[in-house]
Structure prediction request, 121 residues.
Amino acid sequence: MGRVWIGAGALVGMTAVAMAAAAAHMLNGLGPLRLGMVESAIRMQGWHALALVGTGLWVGQGGGRLAGFAGAAFLVGILLFCGGVYGLALFLWPVGFLAPFGGSLLMLGWALLFVSALLRR
Prediction:
């Protein structure tokens, strides 16, 4: 399972870099508020790509089922949070309501990773 989270982290990280390049070179017409939203989503996506890679490494070292659940929470949280923010900022789709659910899942992922570390013997 660790390879799944490492691979997902690599893909999420790659798309964060692509979004950062797009924001720097192609999205200047969005205006400062919407561009700031995109930059916030990019930041969250990049940090949580690293969290996924780290989770994959931890699962590979015997982090247990909670670490696997943390990976799932991170991945779904990234999709909901970043997807909601990108959808609203880039396309004005009314999906911004997804962001708080995604953010809650990201926090849950960190909590599960914490408990997984505490319970490892």
